[in-house]
Specification:
The protein has 315 residues and is mainly alpha-helical. It has one domain. The protein contains eleven helices and two strands, in the order ααααααααααββα. It has a two-stranded antiparallel sheet. β1 and β2 form a beta hairpin. The radius of gyration is 20 Å and the shape is globular. The protein starts with 6 loop residues before the first helix and ends with a helix. The model has no long low-confidence stretch (mean pLDDT 93).
Length: 315
């Protein structure tokens, strides 16, 4: 732990940040990550050109992430309760547990009500695949996959790096993850410019993703589900191009007994992706089950932090 906080303090601040997120949700106006996205776009437009795109991408990442991380470190180092409170505030601003629920459960409700047009619209807001002609199974699959993967990106990775480095760690991770989402494409414009952002995000996500995958295994509701989740992780994850999304989504799909992955439409073309999990195709009710798995994993991580804190206080 590099944050300078005691383990009891870390555990208490983790709980405070999660509770703030569940109570308040995302800031409706002037969200810091939206502002950061605008800053990243400004930097990208000025640096993403000519043949030196890789090194310009490295410079762009440094300019976008390091000054804000340094500012977070300075705020958290201020004396008294203000500095301590800044840790919790930065964690709250960095996680998106309630946001996952608010963006995905309405899709399940629309599907349950037979409102396919609304379900297609809501799903299009959270995934990059085409949804204009998607079926109920396609939409349920997209939402479940998004929940499982973003459980790591929007929640567990942030909690992990907060435990390592407090508020500045949470800020570093979320900004790096946001740049990967913005620049980490393998197309002509971002293949070289976004490579550094993608590789840095892979490195920061490596441990949290595997802890998330292990948590999904442990929280499968049955022993057979735990074995299935473990087997899916070990056999299916290597086929995915992302070294971190594969373990997270395959173990989560296995834990839920769902057959995810497979065909999806991007830019009008059908892309055959490797399989995820094993079992039945996703239905509307499975979106709620995926959300429940993410929520239980959050509770597990908070409980583990509390146990470590309890042990540290008696050491």
């Amino acid at each position: 732990m590099l944050s300078g906080l005691s383990w009891p303090a870390v555990a208490g601040l983790l709980l405070a940040g999660v509770l703030l997120d569940l109570l308040l949700g995302e800031a409706r106006r002037f969200h810091p990550l939206v502002g950061f996205g605008n800053l990243a776009t400004f930097i990208q437009r000025r640096l993403n050109r000519d043949r030196r795109r890789f090194w310009r991408g490295v410079l762009a990442w440094v300019l976008a992430v390091l000054p804000l991380t340094a500012l977070a470190a300075w705020l958290c180092a201020l004396p008294g309760w203000f500095g301590v409170a800044m840790h919790a505030l930065l964690l709250y601003l960095g996680i998106g547990l309630r946001s996952l629920r608010e963006h995905n459960l309405p899709i399940a409700a629309a599907l349950a009500a037979g409102d396919l047009p609304r379900a297609r619209f809501l799903t299009s807001m959270i995934v990059s695949r085409d949804t204009a002609h998607a079926s109920e199974a396609d939409l349920a699959k997209a939402s479940a996959e998004s929940l499982l993967e973003n459980g790591n990106d929007a929640v567990f990775g942030t909690l992990f790096w907060f435990a390592v480095a407090g508020g500045p760690g949470a800020v570093l991770f979320r900004l790096a993850n946001t740049l990967d989402a913005m620049w980490g494409y393998r197309n002509e414009r971002f293949l070289y410019f976004g490579r550094a952002a993608a590789r840095i995000d892979d490195a920061l996500n490596y441990v949290p993703a595997r802890l998330t995958a292990l948590s999904y295994v442990l929280l499968a509701p049955t022993l057979a589900g735990k074995r299935r989740a473990w087997q899916c992780w070990r056999t299916q994850a290597p086929a995915w191009s992302s070294p971190n999304a594969g373990p997270v989504m395959s173990s989560g799909a296995g834990a839920l007994g769902l057959a995810l992955g497979g065909a999806a439409v991007y830019d009008g073309e059908i892309e055959q992706r490797p399989p995820l999990g094993s079992g039945a195709p996703a239905r509307a009710a499975d979106i709620g089950r995926a959300w429940g798995l993410v929520l239980r994993t959050t509770m597990l991580w908070l409980a583990c932090a509390g146990l470590v804190a309890l042990g540290g206080s008696h050491a």
